[in-house]
């Protein structure tokens, strides 16, 4: 069996979670670390202003309410944001488990409004992490030994995160703030304010406590916990620990990327929605779509019907979301020949022309990323990157998985496909899904990553219709995809003897990866729908943003 994934604790405060839509920031950051192979515990504060709203509500009812009663009502903010984040993660297709202090056995002692954590059910949390990979944990709140709700003081979510990192021996703990690190004084007052690249505990305690809760720093110091403080999608946070303090005048500031979006359908519209919330990271220079005059995007972005011309404009990144392999190939080639990086969700393009496109890159700054092409929000390509694998077996098409589930429940094939279309899981023409060609494209993309060449004579496909004609009512059944260095197949199989696949339902995907050294690993995620695919495309863009900002920062240091 492979080693247990490393654990990172991510804390999201109210300065980041300004409103419900900004919970997407937490989704993006969680998915970033999941793609890189980490188990994630996401600690969330209440949405901005929610705690103050609850305090006012309490005072309006009874200005002399007991501290116990106040702790109970104040806990509602964190419980609400944790539950909402769980819903956002589910929409994005990322497996997660939202838990309460009761589930975690999280106990604190002391005053009801300023308690300190003392115990945690570590085994239970480790089990939940193994099962889902992501735990959403409400910060700031705990229970006392009698079962009553208590809070950990103002800014107590910082303490929750540091305590969890200590108790679970997490490899990393990062507090996501609205600043890129810890400064000697407020950076808003001076552009030359020194920034800590590393801060000794006492230096962190010398700040006014508005950025980091002092109780959290004191706990970290007492238990030797090193933690980080930085911005969303940051690559150079301030580290706080027992080491020597180091100052820097270079911020971890993002350098915006220009984007040309070719294709503004279901997925393209989702990508535009997501990047539009991140103007500090992305600037859309144009959008190509078939009927620009009918677009609701006209007021926001320049619209054109000429995708190839847009791809030739030299944007930092061209995002190809057209589909097919004709115009899409012309767009991809135009982008790479004009110095742009390419992000695509087009598995057929990569399966048929991946090697050709890679040969067109003419500088190290150009990248071709296509995580969304295989498995939607299931990070399969990331899991096998840099690894030598023996085989991949699993469910790689969310549309057919949903359809087979509907057939199992008694629907006809036509009704099941129509339902899939209405939910955004299937195209108007779903034939490539139903006959296995879509999943085969994904297998060939995996083969391309491994530099395997699969002869056509070693490829086998079974369509859902032909399976229904030959083996009716053999449920549960799944469209199972398999690839190794010799062969590729997509076949409908009854699965009573394979519970992991049989329990993968609706639009979810699942892959069992056998490594060349005999170890195994699994990945899960939603493989169809607007938001899982859009989330995966955005994750590629965020990766390029980090690379771009890091490279630009290094160049600035070299010329300083």
Structural class: alpha/beta
CATH architecture annotation of the largest domain: 3-Layer(aba) Sandwich
Q: List low-confidence stretches.
A: 554-560
β-strand number: 26
The CATH top-level class label of the largest domain = Alpha Beta
Shape: globular
DSSP helical segment count: 20
CATH superfamily of the largest domain: Acetylglutamate kinase-like
Count of structural domains: 3
Largest sheet: 10 strands, mixed
For the record, give the distance between the C-alpha atoms at the N and C termini, rounded to a whole number: 48 Å
Q: How much helix, percentage-wise, in residues? A: 25-40%
Question: How would you summarize the topology of this molecule?
Answer:
Elements: E1 7-12, H1 23-35, E2 39-44, H2 50-61, H3 67-91, E3 97-98, H4 101-104, E4 107-111, E5 114-119, H5 122-132, E6 134-138, E7 141-143, E8 149-151, H6 156-167, E9 172-176, E10 182-183, E11 195-200, H7 201-205, H8 214-223, E12 227-230, E13 238-241, E14 246-248, E15 257-262, H9 266-275, E16 282-288, E17 303-304, H10 307-311, E18 317-320, H11 327-337, E19 341-344, H12 347-360, E20 368-369, H13 380-384, E21 389-395, H14 398-408, H15 413-422, H16 431-434, H17 437-449, E22 459-461, H18 464-470, E23 477-484, E24 488-494, H19 499-502, E25 508-515, E26 520-526, H20 530-559
Parallel strand pairs: 1-2, 1-9, 2-6, 3-6, 9-12, 11-13, 15-16, 15-18, 16-17, 18-19, 19-20, 22-24
Antiparallel strand pairs: 4-5, 7-8, 10-11, 11-14, 12-13, 21-23, 21-25, 23-24, 25-26
Helix pairs in contact: 1-3, 2-3, 6-8, 9-20, 11-12, 12-17, 14-15
């Amino acid at each position: 069996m492979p080693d247990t994934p490393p654990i990172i604790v991510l804390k999201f405060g109210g300065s980041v979670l300004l409103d419900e839509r900004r919970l997407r920031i937490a989704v993006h950051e969680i998915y970033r670390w999941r793609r890189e192979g980490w188990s994630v515990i996401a600690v969330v504060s209440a949405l901005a202003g929610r705690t103050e709203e609850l305090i006012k509500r309490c005072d309006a009812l009874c200005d002399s309410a007991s501290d116990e009663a106040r702790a109970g009502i104040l806990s509602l903010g964190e419980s609400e944001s944790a539950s909402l984040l769980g819903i956002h993660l589910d929409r994005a297709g990322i497996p997660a488990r939202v838990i309460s202090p009761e589930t975690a056995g999280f106990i604190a002692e002391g005053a009801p409004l300023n308690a300190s954590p003392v115990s945690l059910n570590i085994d239970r949390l480790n089990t939940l992490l193994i099962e889902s990979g992501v735990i959403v944990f409400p910060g700031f709140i705990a229970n006392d030994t009698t079962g009553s709700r208590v809070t950990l003081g103002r800014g107590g979510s910082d303490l929750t995160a540091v305590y969890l990192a200590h108790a679970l021996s997490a490899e990393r703990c990062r507090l996501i703030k609205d600043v890129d690190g810890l400064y000697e004084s407020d950076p808003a007052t001076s552009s030359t304010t020194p920034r800590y690249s590393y801060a000794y505990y006492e230096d962190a305690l010398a700040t006014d406590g508005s950025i980091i809760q002092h109780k959290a720093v004191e706990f970290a110091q007492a238990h030797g916990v090193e933690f980080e403080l930085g911005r969303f999608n940051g690559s150079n946070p301030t580290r706080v620990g027992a080491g020597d303090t180091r100052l820097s005048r270079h911020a971890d500031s993002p350098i915006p990327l220009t984007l040309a979006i070719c294709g503004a359908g279901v997925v393209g519209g989702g990508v535009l929605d997501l990047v539009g919330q991140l103007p500090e990271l992305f600037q859309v220079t144009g959008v190509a779509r078939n009927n620009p005059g009918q677009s609701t995007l006209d007021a926001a972005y320049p619209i054109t019907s000429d995708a190839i011309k847009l791809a030739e404009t030299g944007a930092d990144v061209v995002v190809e979301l057209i589909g097919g392999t004709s115009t899409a190939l012309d767009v991809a080639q135009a982008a790479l020949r004009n110095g742009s990086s390419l992000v695509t969700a087009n598995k057929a393009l990569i399966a048929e022309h991946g090697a050709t496109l890679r040969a067109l890159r003419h500088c190290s700054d150009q990248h071709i990323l296509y995580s969304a092409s295989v498995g939607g929000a299931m990070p399969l390509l990331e899991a096998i990157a840099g690894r030598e694998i023996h085989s991949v077996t699993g469910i790689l098409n969310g549309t057919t998985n949903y359809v087979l589930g509907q057939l199992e429940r008694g629907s006809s094939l036509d009704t099941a496909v129509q339902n899939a279309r209405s939910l955004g899981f299937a195209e108007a023409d779903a034939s490539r899904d139903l006959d296995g060609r879509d999943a085969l494209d994904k297998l060939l993309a995996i083969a391309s990553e491994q530099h395997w060449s699969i002869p056509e004579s070693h490829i086998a496909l079974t369509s859902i219709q032909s399976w229904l004609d030959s083996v009716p009512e053999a449920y549960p059944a799944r469209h199972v995809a398999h690839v190794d260095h010799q062969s590729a197949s997509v076949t409908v199989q009854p699965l009573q003897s394979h519970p992991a696949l049989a329990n993968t339902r609706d639009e979810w995907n699942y892959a069992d990866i056998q490594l060349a050294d005999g170890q195994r690993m699994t990945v899960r995620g939603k493989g169809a729908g607007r938001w899982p695919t859009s989330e995966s495309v955005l994750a590629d863009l965020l990766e390029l943003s980090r690379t771009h900002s890091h490279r630009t920062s290094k160049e600035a240091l070299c010329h300083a």
